[in-house]
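Quick start: read one record
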Amino acid sequence: MKNSKQILPSLGVYGFDNLELIILAALITEDPMLLIGKSGTGKTYLLNSISEALNLNHRHYNASFISFDDLIGFPYPNVEGQTVTYLKTPATIWGAESILIDEISRCKPETQNKFFSIIQEKKIQGIELSELKYRWAAMNPLMDENNDTADYYEGSLSLDQALADRFAFIIEVPDWNELTVSEQELVINPAGEGKINNTSEELIQFIKKLREKFIIELKNQNKKIILYCRIISTILGDSGFRISPRRARQLARNFAAIFLVAKEIGLDQNENQLKKLFYLGLSWSLPHRAWQGNISSLKIETAHNECIKLIGEVGTENSWLSEFNFIKNVPKKIKMLLNAKIDKETKSIAIMKFLNNGSKTKTGMLAFAAQPFFEKIDILNEEAFNEITNHSTKVMDVEGKLQWRERINANNPHPILSNCVKFIKSLKTKDKMRTKRANQFFLYLILNNVSIPEPEFIENELNECFKVIKEELTNAKNI
Protein backbone atom coordinates (compact mmCIF):
# COMPACT_ATOMS: atom_id res chain seq x y z
CA MET A 1 0.00 0.00 0.00
CA LYS A 2 2.99 2.34 0.42
CA ASN A 3 3.10 3.20 -3.30
CA SER A 4 -0.63 3.83 -3.67
CA LYS A 5 -3.03 6.57 -2.71
CA GLN A 6 -4.51 5.64 0.63
CA ILE A 7 -8.04 6.16 1.83
CA LEU A 8 -7.88 5.79 5.62
CA PRO A 9 -5.59 8.80 6.26
CA SER A 10 -8.13 10.96 4.42
CA LEU A 11 -10.62 9.91 7.14
CA GLY A 12 -8.25 11.01 9.89
CA VAL A 13 -7.25 7.42 10.66
CA TYR A 14 -3.49 6.99 10.93
CA GLY A 15 -1.15 4.06 11.59
CA PHE A 16 -3.07 1.51 9.54
CA ASP A 17 -1.12 1.87 6.28
CA ASN A 18 0.07 -1.75 6.28
CA LEU A 19 -3.44 -3.01 7.07
CA GLU A 20 -5.49 -0.81 4.74
CA LEU A 21 -5.57 -3.38 1.95
CA ILE A 22 -6.97 -6.00 4.35
CA ILE A 23 -9.54 -3.60 5.81
CA LEU A 24 -10.74 -2.60 2.34
CA ALA A 25 -11.00 -6.28 1.39
CA ALA A 26 -13.20 -6.87 4.47
CA LEU A 27 -15.47 -4.01 3.41
CA ILE A 28 -15.81 -5.53 -0.05
CA THR A 29 -16.70 -9.02 1.17
CA GLU A 30 -19.09 -7.67 3.85
CA ASP A 31 -17.87 -10.54 6.01
CA PRO A 32 -17.31 -10.11 9.79
CA MET A 33 -14.06 -8.48 10.94
CA LEU A 34 -12.42 -8.63 14.38
CA LEU A 35 -9.76 -6.19 15.59
CA ILE A 36 -7.43 -7.17 18.44
CA GLY A 37 -5.30 -4.52 20.10
CA LYS A 38 -4.19 -2.87 23.29
CA SER A 39 -6.21 -0.06 24.81
CA GLY A 40 -5.97 3.27 23.01
CA THR A 41 -4.74 1.88 19.69
CA GLY A 42 -7.69 3.24 17.70
CA LYS A 43 -9.74 0.10 17.10
CA THR A 44 -13.13 1.66 17.73
CA TYR A 45 -12.07 4.97 16.20
CA LEU A 46 -11.18 3.20 12.95
CA LEU A 47 -14.47 1.32 12.68
CA ASN A 48 -16.65 4.23 13.73
CA SER A 49 -14.83 6.46 11.23
CA ILE A 50 -15.47 3.97 8.43
CA SER A 51 -19.16 3.84 9.29
CA GLU A 52 -19.32 7.65 9.13
CA ALA A 53 -17.47 7.76 5.80
CA LEU A 54 -19.83 5.16 4.31
CA ASN A 55 -22.82 7.04 5.75
CA LEU A 56 -24.09 3.91 7.48
CA ASN A 57 -26.82 3.61 10.08
CA HIS A 58 -24.37 2.45 12.73
CA ARG A 59 -24.62 0.96 16.24
CA HIS A 60 -21.75 0.79 18.73
CA TYR A 61 -22.28 -1.70 21.58
CA ASN A 62 -20.07 -2.39 24.58
CA ALA A 63 -20.41 -6.13 25.10
CA SER A 64 -18.94 -6.07 28.61
CA PHE A 65 -22.12 -4.69 30.15
CA ILE A 66 -24.82 -4.68 27.47
CA SER A 67 -28.12 -6.39 28.11
CA PHE A 68 -29.62 -8.34 25.24
CA ASP A 69 -32.82 -6.32 25.67
CA ASP A 70 -30.76 -3.27 24.72
CA LEU A 71 -30.28 -4.88 21.30
CA ILE A 72 -33.83 -5.93 20.51
CA GLY A 73 -35.93 -3.54 22.57
CA PHE A 74 -38.81 -4.32 24.88
CA PRO A 75 -41.16 -7.07 23.54
CA TYR A 76 -44.68 -5.76 23.04
CA PRO A 77 -47.60 -8.10 22.18
CA ASN A 78 -50.33 -6.90 19.82
CA VAL A 79 -53.91 -6.42 20.99
CA GLU A 80 -54.92 -9.98 20.13
CA GLY A 81 -51.81 -11.33 21.84
CA GLN A 82 -50.93 -13.38 18.76
CA THR A 83 -47.73 -11.62 17.68
CA VAL A 84 -44.94 -9.74 19.38
CA THR A 85 -43.17 -6.63 18.17
CA TYR A 86 -40.22 -4.87 19.77
CA LEU A 87 -40.28 -1.27 20.85
CA LYS A 88 -37.44 0.38 19.00
CA THR A 89 -35.02 2.93 20.40
CA PRO A 90 -31.98 4.65 18.82
CA ALA A 91 -29.87 1.89 20.41
CA THR A 92 -31.74 -1.18 19.16
CA ILE A 93 -30.28 -3.17 16.31
CA TRP A 94 -33.31 -2.93 14.02
CA GLY A 95 -32.47 -0.96 10.88
CA ALA A 96 -28.72 -0.93 11.55
CA GLU A 97 -26.44 -1.23 8.51
CA SER A 98 -23.29 -1.73 10.54
CA ILE A 99 -22.59 -2.74 14.13
CA LEU A 100 -19.50 -2.69 16.30
CA ILE A 101 -19.44 -5.11 19.21
CA ASP A 102 -16.73 -3.60 21.40
CA GLU A 103 -14.99 -5.55 24.20
CA ILE A 104 -16.38 -8.82 22.83
CA SER A 105 -13.79 -10.81 24.82
CA ARG A 106 -15.34 -9.49 28.06
CA CYS A 107 -18.80 -10.60 27.02
CA LYS A 108 -20.77 -12.95 29.28
CA PRO A 109 -20.99 -16.43 27.71
CA GLU A 110 -24.78 -16.30 27.38
CA THR A 111 -24.61 -12.94 25.59
CA GLN A 112 -21.69 -14.10 23.45
CA ASN A 113 -23.84 -16.99 22.26
CA LYS A 114 -26.63 -14.58 21.29
CA PHE A 115 -24.21 -12.49 19.26
CA PHE A 116 -23.36 -15.66 17.35
CA SER A 117 -26.41 -15.57 15.07
CA ILE A 118 -25.98 -11.84 14.43
CA ILE A 119 -22.37 -12.29 13.33
CA GLN A 120 -22.92 -15.47 11.35
CA GLU A 121 -26.42 -15.16 9.90
CA LYS A 122 -27.42 -11.50 10.27
CA LYS A 123 -30.35 -12.69 12.37
CA ILE A 124 -31.60 -12.02 15.87
CA GLN A 125 -34.18 -14.16 17.65
CA GLY A 126 -34.56 -15.90 14.29
CA ILE A 127 -35.59 -12.63 12.61
CA GLU A 128 -33.54 -11.52 9.63
CA LEU A 129 -31.71 -8.20 9.91
CA SER A 130 -32.27 -7.32 6.26
CA GLU A 131 -30.41 -3.98 6.31
CA LEU A 132 -27.34 -5.19 8.20
CA LYS A 133 -24.18 -5.32 6.06
CA TYR A 134 -21.21 -5.07 8.35
CA ARG A 135 -20.57 -6.93 11.61
CA TRP A 136 -17.43 -5.75 13.35
CA ALA A 137 -15.96 -6.52 16.75
CA ALA A 138 -13.00 -5.38 18.84
CA MET A 139 -11.16 -6.80 21.82
CA ASN A 140 -8.02 -6.41 23.91
CA PRO A 141 -5.29 -9.04 23.76
CA LEU A 142 -6.01 -12.16 25.76
CA MET A 143 -5.06 -12.15 29.42
CA ASP A 144 -1.70 -13.79 29.97
CA GLU A 145 -0.96 -14.67 33.59
CA ASN A 146 2.74 -15.04 32.75
CA ASN A 147 2.92 -11.54 31.29
CA ASP A 148 5.36 -9.48 33.37
CA THR A 149 4.73 -6.20 31.52
CA ALA A 150 2.40 -3.39 32.52
CA ASP A 151 -0.13 -4.51 29.93
CA TYR A 152 -2.59 -6.74 31.73
CA TYR A 153 -6.21 -7.04 30.61
CA GLU A 154 -8.06 -8.80 33.37
CA GLY A 155 -11.33 -10.17 32.11
CA SER A 156 -10.25 -10.34 28.47
CA LEU A 157 -10.84 -14.01 27.77
CA SER A 158 -10.45 -16.14 24.68
CA LEU A 159 -13.41 -16.29 22.32
CA ASP A 160 -15.30 -19.48 21.75
CA GLN A 161 -13.54 -21.17 18.82
CA ALA A 162 -16.75 -21.54 16.83
CA LEU A 163 -17.51 -17.83 17.25
CA ALA A 164 -13.96 -16.80 16.34
CA ASP A 165 -14.14 -18.94 13.20
CA ARG A 166 -17.06 -16.79 11.97
CA PHE A 167 -14.84 -13.73 11.62
CA ALA A 168 -13.31 -13.53 8.15
CA PHE A 169 -10.42 -11.27 9.10
CA ILE A 170 -8.81 -11.25 12.56
CA ILE A 171 -6.43 -8.30 12.64
CA GLU A 172 -3.92 -7.24 15.29
CA VAL A 173 -3.84 -3.44 15.52
CA PRO A 174 -0.38 -1.78 15.70
CA ASP A 175 0.72 -0.13 18.95
CA TRP A 176 2.73 3.07 19.39
CA ASN A 177 6.18 1.59 18.77
CA GLU A 178 5.00 0.08 15.49
CA LEU A 179 4.04 3.47 14.04
CA THR A 180 6.37 5.64 11.97
CA VAL A 181 7.44 9.02 13.33
CA SER A 182 5.08 10.83 10.95
CA GLU A 183 2.20 8.56 11.98
CA GLN A 184 2.96 9.19 15.65
CA GLU A 185 2.83 12.94 15.13
CA LEU A 186 -0.46 12.71 13.21
CA VAL A 187 -1.97 10.60 15.99
CA ILE A 188 -0.78 13.04 18.66
CA ASN A 189 -2.38 16.05 16.96
CA PRO A 190 -5.57 16.76 18.98
CA ALA A 191 -7.24 18.67 16.12
CA GLY A 192 -9.11 15.62 14.91
CA GLU A 193 -10.37 14.46 18.31
CA GLY A 194 -14.14 14.03 18.35
CA LYS A 195 -14.44 15.04 14.71
CA ILE A 196 -17.24 13.39 12.72
CA ASN A 197 -16.21 12.33 9.24
CA ASN A 198 -18.05 13.58 6.22
CA THR A 199 -19.43 11.02 3.82
CA SER A 200 -16.61 9.81 1.57
CA GLU A 201 -17.91 9.36 -1.97
CA GLU A 202 -14.46 8.09 -2.91
CA LEU A 203 -14.70 5.22 -0.44
CA ILE A 204 -18.37 4.50 -1.25
CA GLN A 205 -17.68 4.25 -4.98
CA PHE A 206 -14.52 2.22 -4.38
CA ILE A 207 -16.42 -0.35 -2.33
CA LYS A 208 -19.38 -0.43 -4.72
CA LYS A 209 -17.20 -0.98 -7.79
CA LEU A 210 -15.13 -3.76 -6.25
CA ARG A 211 -18.11 -5.39 -4.56
CA GLU A 212 -19.65 -5.97 -7.99
CA LYS A 213 -16.39 -7.41 -9.28
CA PHE A 214 -16.08 -9.57 -6.16
CA ILE A 215 -19.48 -11.22 -6.77
CA ILE A 216 -18.43 -12.04 -10.33
CA GLU A 217 -15.02 -13.29 -9.15
CA LEU A 218 -16.64 -15.79 -6.77
CA LYS A 219 -18.46 -17.39 -9.70
CA ASN A 220 -15.22 -17.82 -11.63
CA GLN A 221 -12.84 -19.69 -9.38
CA ASN A 222 -9.23 -18.53 -9.41
CA LYS A 223 -7.36 -21.83 -9.66
CA LYS A 224 -4.25 -20.49 -7.96
CA ILE A 225 -6.30 -19.30 -4.98
CA ILE A 226 -8.09 -22.65 -4.71
CA LEU A 227 -4.77 -24.50 -4.90
CA TYR A 228 -3.14 -22.26 -2.28
CA CYS A 229 -6.08 -22.62 0.11
CA ARG A 230 -6.12 -26.41 -0.25
CA ILE A 231 -2.42 -26.85 0.37
CA ILE A 232 -2.02 -24.24 3.11
CA SER A 233 -4.99 -25.66 5.02
CA THR A 234 -3.34 -29.08 5.05
CA ILE A 235 0.10 -27.77 5.97
CA LEU A 236 -1.20 -25.56 8.78
CA GLY A 237 -3.32 -28.43 10.13
CA ASP A 238 -0.21 -30.59 10.37
CA SER A 239 1.58 -27.70 12.13
CA GLY A 240 -1.01 -27.48 14.90
CA PHE A 241 -3.26 -24.80 13.38
CA ARG A 242 -6.41 -26.67 12.45
CA ILE A 243 -8.18 -25.11 9.46
CA SER A 244 -11.86 -26.02 9.30
CA PRO A 245 -13.50 -26.65 5.90
CA ARG A 246 -15.47 -23.44 6.49
CA ARG A 247 -12.25 -21.51 7.15
CA ALA A 248 -10.66 -22.94 3.99
CA ARG A 249 -13.57 -21.55 1.96
CA GLN A 250 -13.36 -18.26 3.85
CA LEU A 251 -9.69 -18.03 2.92
CA ALA A 252 -10.65 -18.25 -0.75
CA ARG A 253 -13.16 -15.40 -0.31
CA ASN A 254 -10.57 -13.31 1.51
CA PHE A 255 -7.91 -13.78 -1.16
CA ALA A 256 -10.37 -13.00 -3.98
CA ALA A 257 -11.11 -9.63 -2.34
CA ILE A 258 -7.46 -8.93 -1.51
CA PHE A 259 -6.35 -9.48 -5.10
CA LEU A 260 -9.12 -7.21 -6.40
CA VAL A 261 -8.11 -4.39 -4.03
CA ALA A 262 -4.42 -4.83 -4.90
CA LYS A 263 -5.18 -4.59 -8.61
CA GLU A 264 -7.43 -1.56 -8.15
CA ILE A 265 -4.84 0.42 -6.20
CA GLY A 266 -2.17 -0.34 -8.79
CA LEU A 267 0.00 -3.00 -7.16
CA ASP A 268 1.92 -5.14 -9.63
CA GLN A 269 0.53 -8.62 -10.15
CA ASN A 270 3.89 -10.36 -10.59
CA GLU A 271 4.72 -13.63 -8.85
CA ASN A 272 6.68 -11.97 -6.05
CA GLN A 273 3.81 -9.58 -5.29
CA LEU A 274 1.25 -12.39 -5.33
CA LYS A 275 3.40 -14.29 -2.84
CA LYS A 276 3.37 -11.25 -0.52
CA LEU A 277 -0.39 -10.86 -0.90
CA PHE A 278 -0.99 -14.51 -0.03
CA TYR A 279 1.15 -14.14 3.10
CA LEU A 280 -0.55 -10.90 4.10
CA GLY A 281 -4.01 -12.41 3.68
CA LEU A 282 -3.08 -15.62 5.48
CA SER A 283 -1.59 -13.75 8.45
CA TRP A 284 -4.83 -11.87 9.10
CA SER A 285 -7.26 -14.69 8.33
CA LEU A 286 -6.40 -17.06 11.18
CA PRO A 287 -9.08 -17.14 13.92
CA HIS A 288 -6.60 -18.79 16.31
CA ARG A 289 -5.51 -15.28 17.35
CA ALA A 290 -8.84 -14.86 19.15
CA TRP A 291 -8.47 -17.92 21.38
CA GLN A 292 -4.75 -18.77 21.43
CA GLY A 293 -3.39 -15.26 21.73
CA ASN A 294 0.00 -14.75 20.10
CA ILE A 295 0.64 -17.26 17.34
CA SER A 296 4.00 -18.10 15.86
CA SER A 297 4.71 -15.94 12.82
CA LEU A 298 7.59 -18.29 12.05
CA LYS A 299 5.20 -21.25 11.73
CA ILE A 300 2.90 -19.24 9.46
CA GLU A 301 5.78 -18.05 7.29
CA THR A 302 7.28 -21.55 7.06
CA ALA A 303 3.92 -23.04 6.04
CA HIS A 304 3.36 -20.23 3.53
CA ASN A 305 6.79 -20.66 1.92
CA GLU A 306 6.30 -24.41 1.62
CA CYS A 307 2.88 -23.85 0.08
CA ILE A 308 4.29 -21.41 -2.49
CA LYS A 309 6.99 -23.93 -3.31
CA LEU A 310 4.44 -26.69 -3.88
CA ILE A 311 2.27 -24.44 -6.06
CA GLY A 312 5.31 -23.68 -8.20
CA GLU A 313 5.91 -27.40 -8.66
CA VAL A 314 2.32 -28.34 -9.51
CA GLY A 315 2.20 -30.92 -12.25
CA THR A 316 5.72 -32.19 -11.56
CA GLU A 317 7.04 -35.17 -9.66
CA ASN A 318 8.64 -32.82 -7.13
CA SER A 319 5.26 -31.32 -6.26
CA TRP A 320 3.82 -34.62 -5.07
CA LEU A 321 7.02 -35.64 -3.29
CA SER A 322 7.28 -32.30 -1.48
CA GLU A 323 3.68 -32.46 -0.33
CA PHE A 324 4.11 -36.08 0.81
CA ASN A 325 7.25 -35.21 2.79
CA PHE A 326 5.73 -32.14 4.42
CA ILE A 327 2.46 -33.73 5.55
CA LYS A 328 2.78 -35.16 9.06
CA ASN A 329 -0.56 -36.97 9.22
CA VAL A 330 -0.02 -40.68 8.40
CA PRO A 331 -3.57 -41.43 7.14
CA LYS A 332 -3.14 -38.58 4.64
CA LYS A 333 0.18 -40.04 3.54
CA ILE A 334 -1.52 -43.40 2.91
CA LYS A 335 -4.23 -41.69 0.84
CA MET A 336 -1.55 -39.99 -1.23
CA LEU A 337 0.17 -43.33 -1.85
CA LEU A 338 -3.15 -44.73 -3.08
CA ASN A 339 -3.38 -42.02 -5.76
CA ALA A 340 -3.52 -43.93 -9.06
CA LYS A 341 -2.15 -40.93 -10.99
CA ILE A 342 1.26 -41.14 -9.31
CA ASP A 343 3.67 -43.69 -10.76
CA LYS A 344 5.18 -46.56 -8.79
CA GLU A 345 8.74 -45.21 -8.81
CA THR A 346 7.73 -41.83 -7.38
CA LYS A 347 5.78 -43.54 -4.60
CA SER A 348 8.73 -45.81 -3.90
CA ILE A 349 11.10 -42.87 -3.58
CA ALA A 350 8.68 -41.21 -1.17
CA ILE A 351 8.22 -44.30 1.01
CA MET A 352 11.97 -45.04 1.17
CA LYS A 353 12.78 -41.49 2.27
CA PHE A 354 9.98 -41.52 4.84
CA LEU A 355 10.87 -44.91 6.34
CA ASN A 356 14.55 -44.00 6.61
CA ASN A 357 14.06 -40.51 8.08
CA GLY A 358 10.69 -40.56 9.88
CA SER A 359 10.06 -41.22 13.56
CA LYS A 360 9.48 -44.76 14.80
CA THR A 361 5.91 -43.83 15.71
CA LYS A 362 5.00 -42.56 12.25
CA THR A 363 6.93 -45.10 10.18
CA GLY A 364 5.75 -48.01 12.32
CA MET A 365 2.17 -46.80 12.06
CA LEU A 366 2.22 -46.60 8.26
CA ALA A 367 3.96 -49.94 7.81
CA PHE A 368 1.71 -51.73 10.33
CA ALA A 369 -1.47 -50.52 8.65
CA ALA A 370 -0.57 -50.43 4.97
CA GLN A 371 1.94 -53.20 4.23
CA PRO A 372 -0.57 -56.07 3.78
CA PHE A 373 -2.72 -53.99 1.45
CA PHE A 374 0.26 -52.65 -0.52
CA GLU A 375 1.30 -56.26 -1.13
CA LYS A 376 -2.08 -56.93 -2.77
CA ILE A 377 -2.17 -53.89 -5.04
CA ASP A 378 1.51 -53.73 -6.03
CA ILE A 379 2.11 -49.97 -5.85
CA LEU A 380 5.79 -50.04 -4.78
CA ASN A 381 8.95 -51.36 -6.40
CA GLU A 382 10.71 -54.33 -4.83
CA GLU A 383 13.21 -52.32 -2.77
CA ALA A 384 10.53 -50.07 -1.25
CA PHE A 385 8.19 -52.98 -0.57
CA ASN A 386 10.94 -54.93 1.18
CA GLU A 387 11.69 -51.90 3.34
CA ILE A 388 8.07 -51.41 4.40
CA THR A 389 7.79 -55.16 5.08
CA ASN A 390 10.86 -54.96 7.29
CA HIS A 391 9.25 -52.14 9.33
CA SER A 392 5.93 -53.96 9.51
CA THR A 393 7.56 -57.15 10.76
CA LYS A 394 9.20 -55.27 13.62
CA VAL A 395 5.78 -54.13 14.79
CA MET A 396 4.07 -57.50 14.33
CA ASP A 397 6.84 -59.58 15.90
CA VAL A 398 8.03 -57.44 18.76
CA GLU A 399 11.37 -58.47 20.21
CA GLY A 400 13.04 -57.00 23.22
CA LYS A 401 13.10 -56.95 26.97
CA LEU A 402 10.83 -54.69 28.94
CA GLN A 403 13.05 -53.05 31.52
CA TRP A 404 12.32 -50.73 34.41
CA ARG A 405 14.65 -49.60 37.11
CA GLU A 406 12.42 -51.13 39.76
CA ARG A 407 10.74 -54.50 39.67
CA ILE A 408 7.51 -54.52 37.67
CA ASN A 409 4.60 -55.93 39.59
CA ALA A 410 1.02 -55.08 40.43
CA ASN A 411 2.12 -52.49 42.97
CA ASN A 412 4.86 -50.99 40.84
CA PRO A 413 3.77 -51.11 37.17
CA HIS A 414 5.75 -49.81 34.22
CA PRO A 415 4.48 -46.20 34.05
CA ILE A 416 4.16 -45.87 30.25
CA LEU A 417 2.72 -49.36 29.75
CA SER A 418 0.30 -48.83 32.61
CA ASN A 419 -0.90 -45.55 31.09
CA CYS A 420 -1.42 -47.19 27.69
CA VAL A 421 -3.30 -50.16 29.15
CA LYS A 422 -5.51 -47.79 31.11
CA PHE A 423 -6.35 -45.88 27.93
CA ILE A 424 -7.11 -49.04 25.95
CA LYS A 425 -9.50 -50.22 28.66
CA SER A 426 -11.28 -46.86 28.46
CA LEU A 427 -11.98 -47.29 24.72
CA LYS A 428 -15.72 -47.66 24.33
CA THR A 429 -15.65 -50.01 21.38
CA LYS A 430 -16.68 -53.58 20.61
CA ASP A 431 -13.96 -53.76 17.98
CA LYS A 432 -11.63 -56.32 19.55
CA MET A 433 -9.22 -56.05 16.63
CA ARG A 434 -8.81 -52.32 17.29
CA THR A 435 -7.81 -52.89 20.92
CA LYS A 436 -5.52 -55.74 19.89
CA ARG A 437 -3.80 -53.49 17.33
CA ALA A 438 -3.40 -50.72 19.93
CA ASN A 439 -1.85 -53.14 22.45
CA GLN A 440 0.57 -54.43 19.82
CA PHE A 441 1.61 -50.97 18.64
CA PHE A 442 2.09 -49.53 22.12
CA LEU A 443 4.24 -52.52 23.08
CA TYR A 444 6.36 -51.94 19.95
CA LEU A 445 6.90 -48.29 20.86
CA ILE A 446 7.72 -49.02 24.51
CA LEU A 447 10.27 -51.69 23.62
CA ASN A 448 11.90 -49.17 21.28
CA ASN A 449 12.11 -46.59 24.05
CA VAL A 450 9.60 -44.25 22.39
CA SER A 451 7.78 -41.87 24.70
CA ILE A 452 3.97 -42.05 24.64
CA PRO A 453 2.75 -38.91 26.43
CA GLU A 454 -0.73 -39.04 24.87
CA PRO A 455 -1.81 -42.58 23.93
CA GLU A 456 -5.22 -41.36 22.71
CA PHE A 457 -3.79 -39.28 19.86
CA ILE A 458 -1.48 -42.04 18.69
CA GLU A 459 -4.21 -44.69 18.78
CA ASN A 460 -6.70 -42.43 16.99
CA GLU A 461 -4.22 -41.80 14.16
CA LEU A 462 -3.42 -45.50 13.97
CA ASN A 463 -7.12 -46.34 13.77
CA GLU A 464 -7.61 -43.74 11.03
CA CYS A 465 -4.86 -45.47 9.03
CA PHE A 466 -6.75 -48.76 9.15
CA LYS A 467 -9.99 -46.94 8.25
CA VAL A 468 -8.36 -45.59 5.09
CA ILE A 469 -7.26 -49.09 4.12
CA LYS A 470 -10.68 -50.53 4.91
CA GLU A 471 -12.42 -47.90 2.77
CA GLU A 472 -10.07 -48.62 -0.11
CA LEU A 473 -10.74 -52.37 0.17
CA THR A 474 -14.49 -51.70 0.17
CA ASN A 475 -14.20 -49.50 -2.91
CA ALA A 476 -12.11 -52.12 -4.70
CA LYS A 477 -14.77 -54.79 -4.04
CA ASN A 478 -17.51 -52.53 -5.41
CA ILE A 479 -15.71 -51.87 -8.68
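The CA atoms of residues 161 and 291 lie 7 Å apart.
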